[in-house]
Design a protein that fits this description.
Blueprint: E1 2-9, H1 15-28, E2 34-37, E3 46-47, E4 50-52, H2 58-61, E5 77-84, E6 87-89, H3 94-102, E7 108-112, H4 114-121, H5 125-136, H6 139-145, E8 161-165, H7 171-187, H8 203-214, E9 220-223, E10 226-228, E11 251-253, H9 270-284, H10 287-328
Parallel strand pairs: 1-2, 1-5, 2-4, 7-9, 10-11
Antiparallel strand pairs: 3-4, 5-8, 6-11, 7-8
Length: about 325
Amino acid sequence: MIEFGFYIKTYWRDYHLAKALIASIRRCAPGYPIIIIPDDHYLKRKLWGEKVITPSDPVLLHLKGFYKKLWCFYGPFRRFIFLDADILVMKDLAELIKKIHSFNNPFFMCNGQSKFVRIQNDGKVLEWHNVVEKHIGNLKLISEFDSEIDMTAFYAFNSGCFASCNDLIPLNKLKSLFFSAQKFQISHGYPPLGYTRKGVFMSDQGFLNYILRKLQIPVTLIPDLYTWGGKRNEEIIENSSGEDHHLKGLFIHWAGEVRPHLLSRGVMAEKQWRRGYLEYYQKYGGWGMFLIDQIILIFQYIARRIRRIWAKYRKTALDRDLYGKNLKG
């Protein structure tokens, strides 16, 4: 068992983000091992020279797509930081790692975004229910699935960035709850858990929130551990005092927002991302893959532009049609 390391969950569309993330980890937390949780189709033991997690337990092999993230609780690291690929390390992580080692197992630590904590603490019931449903899933279906737990009573955390340990969730409990949720999901006409955010849970994030609350595992919130990458709705870190204030803004997370690439403009922290991306290739080589990355990014950029132009055209045509009908009326 390795005392500490990093897990990164990625898939092919996020490879350019994961490479910059690796470079930022090497810069801000040098010397620690990194293990990749890759696409379902990726079967090799290494990706970009980093080890790939390869569980053999049949229960874990049932966790596909988004839910592969849960593999991190059964890997070789005794304690770890888990990061989605759309994250970048912004500052030295020594103090965070020190805090992680201060916990007794089991523990789970994640970001507490001040905006949402404030809504919860202010008792804004309807607004808070909307936040929980957005982050966790269909509250009506969750209540039908398990009437004993009220998810609105807890903070709804984002599962893209957290620290924990490998003995957090007993495998038999995971098996029981996952297969029960899978059966419930399918019986209500939704696609199987793994590749969808529709149905009872909002993908792995909703399920992880649920299972920790169900098993009464305490969740430690670090205020604004990461800065949200919303370029128009950037969350401002309001104070620099209080417990764990020195851990604020260690990461940036582009959750649900436009992510940076070499052609992007105006995306939050894109300069820092570009630095990490190019730094990765300078240190680890693979310039042939760099060119392939650029071709993929260019095609993705063109596809996005076509979709936007088409959506704008359809809206204009619809408005013109409605205007014509009003004139005739």
